[in-house]
Design a protein that fits this description.
With 463 residues, this protein is of the alpha+beta class. Helices cover 41% and strands 21% of the residues. α10 packs across α16 (440-448).
Length: 463
């Protein structure tokens, strides 16, 4: 038996700086990888199950566990960010059949330790909320036993039979999850690196839906009532497009039969449109600073790339990001951090659905101007095509390995392929093939499209 692992930096390269941490803590968590010679069948079959409900199924015998995610696609905005983030947790807290967390945990434990957790993720300006389940594949259970049908039955219970009082959600459940969500939002204040990134994005994307944090604002959470959340719940069920990803040994048609039972009552065709505003270049450079009680400065630079995952130039941007700052062999790491010792850390990452690149670094307060100029000088070097063959080859190997590693994790396969519901991009094999064909000139042309939008600096109170 072998445990599959993909590092956090790989994940950031593939899925963007704001999409990590989308899973709430699982009630139970078991993921086993079969280290044999089996290969993932890379054919994803799409099946329409009901109005506005699409299943993307991957039949594979590589893993001893199967998984699925159910995603309600919503336009991300300030008005609904907080209730969108709160709703899955309230639904999973108690149902008619399982009235508390303990009974839910016991039920999942009886299903051979099935994991069932909430999802709150953002891809561009599209919010995806729902649930993720990971469970032992039926093929590994005693003859006549199965888990898949029971897990989808539990999904229907969570979605359509929540515990209620007075015609809406139970007040104690809502208040408990409001406190948990508020704590999660406010915890970013203690993580100054995350805080600096969030503040930069709020400035850079002011007036755009993307400027609202993924989980919304604490003050908006506090204003939610059981009645208002119930009204939002009904709207989500009735007007959201639903995307399902499944990976396991069942054939897509077999999986479709199980999920069709969950959404058998789905009606209507007026589903909320979801799209992302992409600004291809920065209008002007904004430079802002903020003082707090911190011991290390946080410098975050936001760039408009003009390129999203759907664009032909995306493979070049992905490789350029690795050369510039998205790997341990990058220009920022080697030249700014190692050679010049201007940063405690320095790296670049992409938001491939919004067309953004973020450069994040930790610096001494007095090094602000020097570090900023050094980071921008490396960007100019990319725009001028100052790449060595060794730089490109190392970055290419890094990105290709990261993509191939995605195939070793059901959760990351889900993250990659459910993104096709938001913005269509190349499949992993096609993307690798394109990466292998890129030249230094391709990277230079991609770099030419980058424009600095916002420079944010979190400094000490006396700096």
């Amino acid at each position: 038996m072998q445990i599959a692992f993909v590092s956090h930096i790989f994940y950031r390269i593939l899925h963007g700086i704001t999409s990590q941490n989308f899973f709430a803590p699982f009630i139970f968590s078991k993921l086993v990888y079969n280290g044999g010679s089996e290969r993932v069948n890379q054919m994803i079959k799409s099946i329409e199950l009901a109005p506005g409900v699409t299943l993307r199924a991957m039949q594979t015998d590589k893993f001893k566990t199967a998984c699925f995610s159910v995603n309600f696609l919503r336009p991300h905005c300030r008005q609904t960010a907080a209730p969108d983030a709160l709703l899955p947790s309230v639904l999973l807290r108690a149902t008619e059949r399982y009235p508390d967390i303990r009974s839910i945990s016991m039920h999942l434990d009886e299903l051979y330790g099935t994991s069932f957790g909430t999802l709150v993720r953002r891809k561009g300006e599209v919010k995806l909320t729902g649930f993720y389940a990971d469970f032992i594949d039926d093929a590994y259970l005693p003859e006549g036993e199965g888990v898949f049908a029971a897990v989808t039955d539990f999904l229907r219970e969570v979605l359509y039979h929540p515990q209620t009082e007075n015609g809406c959600f139970c007040a104690k459940n809502v208040e408990g999850e409001k406190q948990n969500l508020t704590n999660a939002i406010e915890s970013d204040l203690n993580d100054k690196r995350a805080y600096a990134t969030a503040r930069m994005l709020e400035t850079m994307c002011a007036g755009e839906p993307y400027g609202t944090p993924r989980l919304g604002y604490a003050e908006d959470v506090r204003g939610i009532t059981p009645q208002s959340l119930w009204a939002h719940y009904k709207t989500v069920l009735d007007t959201s497009k639903i995307e399902i990803f499944y990976a396991g040994r069942h054939a897509p048609e077999e999986a479709a039969k199980q999920f069709a039972k969950v959404f058998s009552d789905r009606r209507g065709d007026a589903f909320a449109p979801v799209q992302t505003l992409v600004r291809r270049e920065a209008a002007q450079v904004r430079e802002v600073s903020e003082a707090m009680d911190v011991t290390q400065g946080k410098l975050v630079i936001g760039l408009r790339t003009g390129i999203t995952v759907s664009d032909p130039d995306y493979p070049a941007l992905l490789l350029l990001n690795a050369v510039y700052g998205g790997s341990v062999t990058s220009k920022l790491f080697r030249n700014v951090r190692e050679k010049r010792s201007l940063c405690y850390y320095a790296g670049a990452s992409l938001e491939k659905y919004k067309g953004l690149m973020l450069v994040s670094s930790g610096i001494a307060f007095e090094n602000y101007e020097t570090a900023k100029q050094a980071i921008l000088q490396e960007l100019d070097a990319c725009k001028n095509g100052a790449f060595t063959d060794e730089e490109i080859d190392r970055a290419r190997r890094f990105v290709v390995f990261a993509l191939r590693s995605t195939m070793d994790s059901p959760a990351r396969l889900d993250e990659f392929y459910i993104g096709s519901a938001v913005a269509r991009g190349d499949d992993i094999p096609e993307l690798i093939e394109q990466l292998n064909a890129l030249t230094a000139e391709d990277l230079r042309l991609a770099a030419q499209k980058l424009s600095v939008d916002t420079i944010y600096f979190l400094k000490g109170e006396n700096a």
